[in-house]
Every structure is written in structure tokens, then in C-alpha cells.
From TrEMBL:
Record-annotated Sigma-54 factor interaction domain positions: 141-370
GO biological process: phosphorelay signal transduction system; regulation of DNA-templated transcription
Response regulatory domain boundaries: 3-119
Entry superkingdom: Bacteria
A Pfam short name: Response_reg
Keywords: ATP-binding, DNA-binding, Nucleotide-binding, Phosphoprotein
Molecular functions (GO terms): ATP binding; DNA binding
Modified residues (4-aspartylphosphate): 54
Protein source organism: Pustulibacterium marinum
Alphabetical list of PROSITE patterns matching this protein: RESPONSE_REGULATORY, SIGMA54_INTERACT_2, SIGMA54_INTERACT_4
Record carries keyword ATP-binding: yes
Protein name per Swiss-Prot or TrEMBL: DNA-binding transcriptional response regulator, NtrC family, contains REC, AAA-type ATPase, and a Fis-type DNA-binding domains
The keyword DNA-binding appears for this protein: yes
């Protein structure tokens, strides 16, 4: 059943709208408000699939209602009701997130078609979000600690934007999982996410890897080759361990961020790219800046949003859930049954110093599953996972 709210200060028009919609479908659950203030309060307290909102109203006009409602519940669809002189305002409202507008007095066919289309669009958006969440299970952030919940909330807010994100944290904390979540929950999720490990590529090759090269640019350049930025066009590029990138490559990345253009090594031709950049590092970039190893202007370009991923030692309460997750995943990979870990075994694991973070914990869980008994006990942990 679709819940629809009609916000209209003219009682006669409000009654007509409610009557038409109630007669159109028994699946419409109608609610009404006589002014913007009352309507906004209802939007705050109820989850509506669609709001029909007049533009000119006392106390609070429709544009104010739309703006405030979209900040509170951005998923709610709005159709604006405009008088003859409000068309420009109605068009502006669509730029602010309204689905459409209808003019007064409302034409019956126009009204019903707009309502049906708005509700269909809402269903489509909801389904897309559901599918994205399903896909994103491949890169889950496991845990219910305050630190992980804060990261999940930040990802949910930041992902739909094109804001650049710098993810920091020690090795093995799961920075790449955050990057994948940002991409998969974004409007760029249908396009590729290209990963570049800056620490694994020799400094003399990093520019060619990122920006491509033309034939003859250097000895082994036997043909033209596109780089990672071109491959990520319309999508996301994830620059992992960006703190290890050479200063020369940093200068080119800075230009790409400033101008949305790159040039292949050995070429003067500019190539326009539309890429969202997410970067990650285990280094203290401010210290690297002070030591002359990292460009301060690039740092400020990258660090529009900062996400700090905590060490496992700082979120030990997540270890039981992580152990269960890894046990289940490893069993699936090996075609076996997931093993249970006793409470005492978990307590021992929670007491260890996890310098290798999540990556180290997964390796230990796999070792215990292979070497331990049918149920992983405290003795198994002490015997096969001792960190003393």
C-alpha cells in the first residue's frame, strides 16, 4: 500500500485531490495537511511514498517544506502543485529534488499519470538500493562497535556524492572494504572501480600505470596504452597506499583532480576524464608533508572527507562477530561445515595483541579451522594461535 500525503492550504483543492486519488486506487493510503508546518511535521513522523505539496502556502511555503524534508528523508518523492505564476519556482523545485509538478486546477489524467510515475520511480529507487546492499555484502564491514557504526553512517552519507575521500588506518584494518562500500553505494556503481596499489608499482612506472603512455614514450612502450584513470572513466579509482606515490606522479594526480584531464606519458594531448577519486594510506600524511615526501596541495584535494579505520585492538568487541564471519566464509571456500568457537576460545582471541589487525585475525581463524578439533576450544587457540 502506497502512503500519500497531500499538503494544500486551499481546502477545496485538497478535498478534490484526496477524492480523485482515493477513487483511483484502493492501495493508496491518503493523509492530508492544511499548511506547510503541519505537512512537515507529518513528513517527520511518518514514512510517505509520495508527497503532493502546494508551493504557495502560509506559515511555510512548499519550497521550504521540500528543502527541509529532503534533508530529513531524502528518499521521499515530492510532486509540487503550482499556480499559473509558480511555474519557474516549480522547475527550480525539480532541481532541488522534486520528481515533477502539476498545475492548478489539476488535470485528471496529468495528475494520475504523475502520481503513478512518481510511485513507480520510488519503487525503482528502493529496489536499486536493495540490490546495491545485496552486492555490497561481498565487501561487508563486520562489527557493531561504535567506531564501525560511525564509519557505516558516514559511508551512507558520503557515497551518493562525488566528494573525494581519504581513508586512513594501519595495514590490515580493512580500508579497501570502506572504498568498495563507497563505490557500491554510489551512483557510479554501474561503472568500474579501478584499484591501484601505489606501493606495489615501481616509481618509474607509476605514471604510465595511472595515465597510460603512447608508443615510443620509453623503451618498452611498443604500443599506445590507456591508464587506470581512463579505465575508471564514469566510475571510481581507488589509489591505495597513496603515501608511497612519487612526487612526480603526485603532481600529475593533482592536475587530474584540478582539471579533470590527464595526458599519457609521451603525449601532449589532453584526455578528459570523469572519475571519482578515493585514496587510502597507512602513513601519517601530515608528517610526510613536513618531511617533503607528500604534496600539501594534493592532500587538501584528496582529504575532502576523512575516514579513519580503527585498529582491531581498538574494537575488540567485534572479534566474536568477525570470527563467526570468517569461519563461515572459510568453510564455504573449502566446501566444509563452519566450525563453532567456544566462548573461552573467543575470550582468548580477544585478549591477543592484533598488530596485523583484521588480516591477521582471518589467518589465525583459518589456521584454527584447519588444525583444530570439530569445535575450536581454548586449548586449540593456545596451541595453534599463540601470540606469545
Amino acid at each position: 500500500m502506497s502512503k500519500i500525503l497531500v499538503i494544500e492550504d486551499e481546502a477545496a483543492i485538497r478535498r478534490v485531490l484526496v477524492k480523485i486519488l482515493s477513487e483511483e486506487s484502493e492501495t493508496y493510503q491518503l493523509d492530508e495537511a492544511a499548511d506547510g508546518v503541519e505537512g512537515l511535521e507529518k513528513v517527520k513522523s511518518e514514512d510517505y511514498d509520495l508527497v503532493l505539496c502546494d508551493i504557495k502556502m502560509p506559515k511555510k511555503d512548499g519550497i521550504e517544506v521540500l528543502e527541509e524534508a529532503k534533508n530529513i528523508k531524502p528518499e521521499t518523492s515530492f510532486v509540487m502543485i503550482s499556480g499559473h505564476g509558480d511555474i519557474d519556482t516549480a522547475v527550480n523545485a525539480m532541481r532541488m529534488g522534486a520528481y515533477d509538478f502539476i498545475s492548478k486546477p489539476p488535470d485528471l489524467n496529468r495528475l494520475l499519470n504523475t502520481v503513478r510515475n512518481a510511485l513507480d520511480n520510488k519503487t525503482l529507487v528502493t529496489e536499486n538500493k536493495r540490490l546495491r546492499k545485496k552486492v555490497s555484502k561481498n565487501y561487508q564491514m563486520i562489527g557493531e562497535s561504535d567506531q564501525i557504526q560511525q564509519i557505516k553512517q558516514m559511508v551512507e552519507k558520503v557515497a551518493p556524492t562525488d566528494a573525494r575521500v581519504l581513508i586512513t588506518g594501519s595495514n590490515g584494518t580493512g580500508k579497501e572494504l570502506v572504498a568498495h562500500q563507497l563505490h557500491e553505494q554510489s551512483d557510479r556503481s554501474k561503472a568500474p572501480m579501478i584499484e591501484v596499489n601505489c606501493a606495489a608499482i615501481p616509481s618509474e612506472l607509476i605514471e604510465s600505470e595511472l595515465f597510460g603512455h603512447v608508443k615510443g614514450a620509453f623503451t618498452s612502450a611498443v604500443k599506445d596504452r590507456a591508464g587506470k584513470f581512463e579505465a575508471a572513466n564514469k566510475g571510481t579509482i581507488f589509489l591505495d597506499e597513496i603515501g608511497d606515490m612519487s612526487l612526480a606522479a603526485q603532481a600529475k594526480v593533482l592536475r587530474a583532480l584540478q582539471e579533470n584531464r590527464i595526458s599519457r606519458v609521451g603525449s601532449d594531448k589532453d584526455i578528459k576524464v570523469d572519475v571519482r577519486v578515493i585514496a587510502a594510506t597507512n602513513k601519517d600524511l601530515k608528517k610526510e608533508i613536513a618531511e617533503g615526501n607528500f604534496r600539501e596541495d594534493l592532500y587538501h584535494r584528496l582529504a575532502v572527507i576523512l575516514i579513519q579505520v580503527p585498529a582491531l585492538n581498538d574494537r575488540r568487541e567485534d572479534i566474536p562477530e568477525l570470527v563467526h564471519h570468517f569461519s563461515k566464509k572459510i568453510a564455504q571456500e573449502q566446501g566444509s561445515v563452519a566450525k563453532n568457537f567456544t566462548d573461552d576460545a573467543i575470550k582468548v582471541l580477544q585478549g591477543y595483541d592484533w598488530t596485523g589487525n583484521i588480516r591477521e585475525l582471518r589467518n589465525v581463524v583459518e589456521r584454527l579451522i584447519i588444525l583444530g578439533g570439530q569445535e575450536i576450544s581454548e586449548d586449540d587457540v593456545k596451541l595453534f594461535a599463540s601470540k606469545s
